[in-house]
Amino acid sequence: MLGTLENKDKSHWKEFVKPLVHAYNCTQNDVTGFSPYELMFGRQPRLPVDLAFGLPASSQPKSHSQYVHDLKGRLEESYRVATENASKTAERNKQRFDKRVVESTLGSGNRVLVRNVRIRGKHKLADKWEADIHIVVKRAGDLPVYTVKPEGKDGPTRTLHRNLLLPCGFLPVAESEQPLKQTVNKPRTRRQSRMEVTDESEVADDNSESEDNDYCYYPPGETLNTDSIETRLDPARDSTF
Question: What is the pLDDT of residues 159-175, one digit of tens each?
Answer without folding.
Answer: 999 999 999 988 887 66
